[in-house]
Amino acid sequence: MGIGALPGCSCLTLLKAVDDNQRPTWCAPEKGGTQKQDVKIRKAKATGRSGLMKDIATLSRILMHATSSANEAFGEGLPLSKTDEWAAASRGLIAGLPDGGITGPDGRKSWDIADFDFLKEGPPATVNPSLWRMAQLNAISGLFEVTRDIWQARAFDYANMTIIRGDAGWIIVDPLMAQETAAAALKVVNETLGERPVSAIIITHTHPDHFGGIRGVADPDNPPPIYAPDGFMEYAASEGILGGNHTSRRAVYQFGISLSTGPEGLVDGGIGKTVAKGQRTFIPPSAFIAETGAERVIDGVRFVFMMASGTEAPAEFTFFMPDHRTLCMAEVCTQTMHNLMPPRGAQVRDALLWARCIDDALALFGEQAEILINCHNWPVWGRAELCLFLEEQRDLYKYIHDQTLRLANLGKTPHEIAASIREPDWMADKFHGRGYYGSLTFNARAVYQKYYGFFDGNPVNLNPLSPEALGHRFVDAVGGHERALSIAEQAVEADDLQWAATVLSNLVFSPDQSDHARKLLALVYRHMGFRAESGIMRNIYLTGAMELEEGVKPLPMAGGRNADLAATLSVQDWFDAFALRLDPERARGVDIAIEFVIGDKTVCVSVKRQTEFARLGATDAKADAKVSISLGLLEQLAAGEISLDDAVADGADIQGSGKALRQWLELHHSFDMWFNIVTP
Ligand SMILES: [Zn+2]
Known about the structure:
Largest sheet: 8 strands, mixed
Structural class: alpha+beta
Mean pLDDT: 90
Oligomer: single chain
Strand order of the largest sheet: 1-4-5-6-7-8-9-10
Shape: globular
Bound molecules: zinc ion
Radius of gyration: 27 Å
Distance between the termini: 22 Å
Low-confidence stretches: 1-51
């Protein structure tokens, strides 16, 4: 990642540079500016650059000084030298990750924990010290013995893979995100503990970091039994499909996928390092668990399941292994505050249900469990410790829920609530409650959204201006481009970063934007990232900064799309997802109907009133065309990978007007993932 504003300066050098730097000689013009300054501004506009503006390097030095002080002050409020978590995160280590990283089939690296070796040093000025501590803990990697017959592979990928000794082989819980990382973890297991087959797989929930690597541990033609929560198929494929392109793009921000690792880049993702690059795969589960209390003996091991659907994921379960006295809370509990609304975008989660679910686990298993494992981060050992951990995790979500609603019922709106809500006192020395993944203010807004939606009741927000329309008017209203820049610079000098970013973002979204405004906004975002305690908020700021400076650079997203999973989409989901692509301009005046026969299903698709609708299980004698085709061929046709003639040659049968089918296909957009976010 290029970070031109900080050209290899050590923190000390920067501090000295600021100390040596006398107060700026330039002062912002008075409101409205003097006549002389107005002339200068007009002149500057004509040449595109102003002599009034400070250079970025000067502002960068000012900000570096402020960031260093802010991070130091943040650290002073926390017991950062506490070592309990270090012992827990390192306990039971029996094997490391493969040297040289994990390579994908295309020869590119899928994962290399050595990319995070820089974390062995003390915290730099460019990282919040609390996040740095968490980043160090999440970098403790390898195969760990949790207790007799239970191991965890940690930091082989974003999530943990848990391995349980069954009678005949390994029971794998959550086979990671990429085929390569899951296979590498299993290889280390077999080399360290002795080669055994995989006798069963348990997938705790619908998020891809917990199942995308499944073909790395199982043969799709002869898979072992695969257990998943009821509703898994409905959500795993469909959740990502309808909103998928938008979410994928924002996930690049959340997980820092385009950032380089390092003290000025990616350091941590809160619940793990980041997502592995590599092949994402799928094998459909063969057994579904629908009820709390459901007991199963899986390869000789007793499991008692507890449903957690609607908390961290729409379909999720936790389980207790009575013979091992071990409780797995899936992703309902982690060693940090989770997201009630992931910034990548998802349906909002239910904080109250989340808290109740943790309390149910406490009531059901708290008297028996001696060890608590989660599908991210490290375990908790000891009954008293795990009960306290569960109580605190429960109260974390309950507190955010209740305080948000208390403030809302006192009449506050989301941004007012975020400004008012205070961290509960216990979080000052209990790191597992802190926001390394979610954050208190973001989560409070999520609770508001769950109950009240995006509108806050104020008429001005019934139909707000679009960012470009607002930017244009804002810059005009403050007196033009140079004046807006000078307001932003004063905000930077006053270390008022959110205000500086607000002014600069309006500038960047105005027609009057300049290279200088973009660079200055990048600088401000970068320092907001440097101070963030949440790893993913840091990633979002830093990715925004990078794209402001370098533009949007599409990445070769090896494994970004899970074709195995897409192939399991229901016919209804496929047509609903394709209908989203209908361009209403192209569809103006169009009235067509096509009947599809896909396997044993019929679907009537109509386009009328600039809207596409697919009715499953219906036939239409008046359809313009009748098409028998496989979903795979239809997908290729829709993606423009094959022609109509190719489809017919491959077995599709078209009766009636082939023209209607062609016209229908041409009504649809294709989606480009690499849309702009920080610029218009
Ligand atoms: Zn996860």
